[in-house]
Amino acid sequence: MKEKQSFNFLIGLLIGALVSLIIWYWQKSTRAEDGAFVLLDRLKAAEDRARQLGNQLGRQTAVSVPPLLPDNLQDVKGIGPVFADRLQAAGIATFADLAQLSPARLGEILNIHPHRAQIILAELH
């Protein structure tokens, strides 16, 4: 009878250990899932915030860049309608663009002597 009691005790102990192991594993797995859900929620919130900031940045950039209007290059002494057309064809549309040219480059664009181009550039200043 004592042997049967000790056998029953060992079986009960084994069943209790298995039940404890199953409960521990179940709690561990549900805690990990809860943590994963929290991380997914935080990731979604961060993505939404990034999208919102990107939209704000796009709107601000589009509004804050004013278009450059071309200057009337004929206001410079020595530049008439023909020279103004040649300059615009070369991509020179403002006084600042014209001021950055060297006399040699301006002479090439207008097909004039560099000395004359230097006189035209001197009229800018």
Topology at a glance:
Layout: H1 2-64, H2 81-89, H3 95-99, H4 103-110, H5 114-124
Helix pairs in contact: 4-5
Walkthrough of the structure:
The structure is a single chain. The chain is an all-alpha fold and 125 residues long. The protein has 2 domains: 65 residues; 52 residues, DNA polymerase, domain 1, CATH 1.10.150.20. The protein is 77% helix and 0% strand. The protein is rod-shaped, with a radius of gyration of 41 Å.
User: Helix/strand-derived class?
Assistant: mainly alpha
Instruction: Give the count of structural domains.
Output: 2
Give unreliable regions as ranges.
none
Helix content: over 70%
Tell me about the largest β-sheet.
none
**H/E element sequence:** HHHHH
Cα-atom Rg, whole angstroms? 41 Å
Shape call: rod-shaped
Number of helices: 5
Termini separation (Å)?
A: 119 Å
State the total count of DSSP E strands: 0
Strand content: under 5%
Q: Roughly what is the average pLDDT, rounded to an integer? A: 85
Concise synopsis of the structure shown:
This protein has helices spanning 2-64, 81-89, 95-99, 103-110, 114-124. With 125 residues, it is mostly helical.
List the keywords.
DNA polymerase, domain 1, 125 residues, 5 helices, 2 domains, single chain, mainly alpha
